[in-house]
Predict the structure.
Amino acid sequence: MLPIRYVEPVFRPPSEAESLILPVTDGCSWNQCTFCEMYTAPQKKFRAREEDEVLDSIRLTGQRYGDQVRRVFLADGDALVLPTRRLLGILEAIRTHLPAVRRISAYCLARNLRKKSQAEIDQLVAAGLKMIYLGAESGDDQVLAAVKKGETFDSTREALDKLGSAGITRSVMILNGLGGKVYSQQHAENSARLANATQPEYLATLVVSFPKGEQRFRADFPEWEPLTQPELFVEMEQFLSSLDLKRTVFRSDHASNWLVLKGTLGADKERLLAQIRQAIAAPDEAHLRPGWARGL
């Protein structure tokens, strides 16, 4: 019997493939974003796990695998919704029972950081929290409102600045195509403006997709029309052109992306722009990911 109880489906960032996935909540406390299908299953209704269950899971995992675990990812959608006291208890238990752990990370909603002071974030870092994945999705307020993200440019920037001030490594995600045809340019430009203002350590782009259909998304965003493959590349070119980053690891290699882009910004900006411009001008020569391999 596993020492940890999982409620399917379980999600984690690609870079957490070798991490212990430790659920401290089930689902997402917001769960209103119309583009997101991650936590819509009936069994994923949001709840904070009982404190004793989480601490017992850590203790039992330590007894079985204690010296083998190097990384821990706090699941599900927004572990930082928990009170700081509870999070500090979880981090202390990890230090006690999993002493080989070198990195603890989590997803985070910007809204949850508004409830925590800078001193609280600093405490969490001192206790071992090292990395946060924040789905900004867009830096454009019209797009964010249309998809019911519950955030604005300013609220997302405030959260990222609070994390940065504490020394947490920040991985920010932007959704290529989220604004559709009508908002494509402003989505690209304002998303770049958000990245420029906050200078995250990691930045990633995914292509918005709807494996379960677009009905829920279109109900609140009826004017949305999906970008064609060439239009997605044009939007990406606008986004990259507008970026002014000093030292950010950039990845556009999720299964949803037609064109794989990897580099460090700004050192590799011109190379990445050359790749995307080649894809626009001559897609047959751009080594695009075939449709069947996009994992949607």
User: Anything to note?
Assistant: DSSP finds ten helices and ten strands in the chain. The chain has a mean pLDDT of 93. The domain at 1-107 is CATH 3.30.750 (Transcription Regulator spoIIAA). The chain has two domains: 1-107, 134-289.
